[in-house]
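This protein record is not my work; I was only asked to verify it. Take the sequence as given and treat only the tokens as open to question. I have pasted the whole thing underneath without changing anything:
***
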Amino acid sequence: MPFDSKPAGFKPYIPASAQLPEMTPRALIMGVILGMIFGASSLYLVLKVGLTVSASIPVAVIAITLFGMAKKLGARESTILENSVAQTAGSAGESLAFGLGVTMPAIMILGFDLEISRVMLVGVLGGLLGILMMIPLRRTLIVDQHRELKYPEGTACAEVLKAAATDVSREAAGEVRDAASAEGSDAIKTAKRRAMLIFGGFGIGILYKTLSVSFKGWRDTINFEFGAPLKTGSIGAEVSPELVGVGYIIGPRIAYTMAAGGVLASLLLVPMIKFFGELASAPLAPATIPIRDMTGDDIRASYILYIGAGAVAAGGLISLARSLPTIWNGLRGGLAGVRQGSKGDVSLRTDRDIPMKWVVIGCLAIIAIISLAAPLHMNVLGAVLILVFGFLFATVSSRLTGEIGSSSNPISGMAVATLLFTCLIFLVMGWTGGQYYVTALSVGAIVCIAASNAGTTSQDLKTGYLVGSTPRMQQYAILCGAFASALILGPILLKLNEAGTVYVPAAQVAPGLTVDAATLTDTAQLQGPQAKDDPNTYKVWHKTDTVGGPAGKYFVDAAGKVVYLVDPGINGHHNTRPDGTEVKKYDAPKAVLMSYIIKGILDQELPWTLVLFGVMIAIVLKMAGIASLAFSVGVYLPLVATLPIAIGGTVRWLADRRNNKLPHNAHFNDEERQAAGDRSAGVLLASGYIAGGALAGIIIAITAGVFTDFDAAVGAWAQASNPFFAGASANWLSMIPYGAIVLLLYWVAREKTGKA
């Protein structure tokens, strides 16, 4: 398709001839800070349920609001281009969080230490690489194919920015609006309401989570277990604001599909395994205890996780295979975009990119750093694979985002494909063992982050194209946002893992286990609340087999006697410390999948029968026309995580069903109704729920080791005196405050009947 910098009939909101303040220090700083906040909340979500939601619209609304507050204090009025830069810088955190949360915890799951230098390097290099690889594709995907590729989240965000445009921006756009007019008054009211909703949701999320978790006001998880005939089966929900918010934003179709996977696992597979295995007296591998002695959680950890991982891997590859025509078209367009270089009328402000020579130099510098960085254990072949897969999937991600949006973009499938091919190549080369675990995972992690950030960058550039931003300024902004978010997400990831780590006495899991201490070189001490009871220094043993005890990280004394199993906060299985206090674990479903792929191919140590059961589940679902990846993630996750997402999806379905019947929405087609729902009041409140609940969860988890006495005292009081937290009716009573935030979400999502 020939390049045309000015497609017929298209005019950006702010014309290219207009000169408005754009990448100002205040816009960049605000965007970077908001990116860190939403990146942290997204990381929390991806560790809990394996997905994130777009942060573009919430960041835009918050930026508009804060600039408006600054104006009242005497600051200069912001422009729509400043708001666009703040939104662009702020959106980088969410995409980085997904890539890091999907891949980096797998290193720890494989038995290695999660080093801060490795996490930060992967985040920074992968994020910057994805942005740079997207730059030469901008004219092809954003400009040439403006009408073909809709970029739904980017388009919706542009509408939010235009609706809240200030007087100086409207004047530059050729619009004149009197603030006292009906139109001006409505616009001001709409902007204030949007701000109130997202900040209100943020406050509710923090308050709810604090009262529930810190002050034990009510249970944060309710669960009902069944006896025969569904013995060990259970149904429950984590009654938290962030998960109901996620369900509302992703919508009923995906939310119900995920919950259906949880129902299959919790109410069919777990009881069925118990039924058929209850009479067996010996353990059935990979479990180490007989099925008759297992709880539902034991069955899930020993069998269901492998079935779910196989289903997720197959679902991701199926999603990727369905996109092969798009991949081919995207590659052709990407190569064409590279060949075009800086062609076009670069005298136009709205058509100026970062020069191609700097893009090429930047990509080569990143590859060189990747090759030389010691924490990544990278070799030349790995660097070449990153370059090839990085460009391939950055192109694919950017195009798929334009067609189906960020939420449906199969980034995890691309990461699975990268890891599969990398591990198969390593296997052919004879590269197996621990060192190559890290190399293969570093390849997959950087490619995953690059693809995720390329998709986000393309959404932001679409927003900028519609409102009339300068592409170069947006590209600088998202580079800064990605770099800053990468620096903070690594430490948060490590702190969340540390906060949930339990040092399990060896007598409970590996009695009498010993090792030759002379062969161990690394040493460590206990961290967190248990450190005050045991200040000793131990040698560290990374055990890879299951002889005498489960595989994992152990602390060993000078005589070689195993003292503790170090059960991590991410994908750990022990929820109670020796003193009886409970900790929160993170399932990190997609990171576990990455670890299974590496171990399964390089060391061939997977229970392939269980994995293939999961593969067949995904294939059957695809044959039935069901979204296999979403269902498979539901199989892997506990039902308590997916059921609240379904509740949020139900609220969205009820609200959209009512709103679509209103007279002013009657003429909308399905695509327009979806777009209207995506920028509705309900989405803003749900986004506030997510950010507030997730950030409160992070702060509570990280500070849990500091306020242990307070937590123990509140827990003892709640156990003895609070019927909402303990007792026969606690599960039902805990649904009262949860029902309140659910009903509030529905009430806010309802549009006014008389809306013009």
